[in-house]
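Question (not urgent): is this output format expected?
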Amino acid sequence: MPDAAVQIDTSPEVPIDQERSSLTQSQLIWRRFLRNRLAVVGGIILLVFYVSMVVFPGFFSTYDYNIQREDYLYAPPQLPRWFDEEGRFHLRPFVYGFTTELDMETFEWVHTIDTSQRHPIYLITRGEEYRLLGLFPSNIHLFGVEPPGTLFIFGADELGRDLYSRILHGGQVSLTIGLVGVILTIILGSVMGTISGYYGGVIDNIIQRIVELLMSFPDIPLWAALAAALPPEWSPAKTFFSISVILSLRNWTGLARQVRAKILAYREEDYALAAQAMGASDRRIILVHMLPNAASHIIVVATLSIPGMILAETALSFLGLGIQPPIVSWGVLLQQAQQVSVVLGRPWLLLPGLFVVLAVLSFNFLGDGIRDAADPYSN
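Got this back:
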């Protein structure tokens, strides 16, 4: 029998440049961003953080983050298990309860695992009440155990408060301060940088001298001095907004200088000169021709600035100069880490620091990915 004819695809391959030309700018940016796996992972982690901590912290938490339980002071973490002490597998995860005794030498309560108390973990269960989105009362939680069982996934603090729930609500403050501070930084940096680069002359000299003056101050002492000047009787909302403003007063200078450099370059481009020759107003030239071209750079700088805001808030609160109790943030939770003896005996109190590291790394990975994707035609 004759051999079957082999069909060979002789159609020419589509060149990469031709393939790029068939895609829009946004499609090219999105495709290049997806190629950066670290940026995608960082974006997913941040999405999980903002959904669970900023939008729905009450639903994802197990308890009210301010409720004190005197029977569970410094209770250790209760890790979910699928296998019991006899090695039997359970379809529903569970946690073991505690037996609490007073140590007569240190006069501290000691919690030990009691394998006779097994508490199953249920999904979508009822628990302590909270306000969904800060408006609607609800008692539905993602997971939990039935009373009198307890579920301290990350352990408890010195007052018996659930550390896992406090980390979620602390992230709501720390992550939101980063966003609010960066928004103010973008506004100040973009406006001052654009004015300085476009008009030049005396205006440019005045703005640049202000920038140099602010950049000459060390960050932590400047923030600490401004934060210490806040009246102690202010409400939590005023304190929150004031800390955001304080963090923005120093960070806008770097963005202003970079935007100024961009505007100086765009001012000499043919399209800007043509717009001036046609009688376009300064506002139109800036808003239509210059700022849109600098938008990708501003977004990248803003994304990379958020970690600095989070670290600054954490440092101020850690030193007792930022957010103060009863408001909770990651910096407030890390205040107990100042005592080495407490940390050595209760290492779970350092867990808020792990979330700070994860958030900062995720923002850095995301910012690097956006920076590379903003120029999709580069190799």
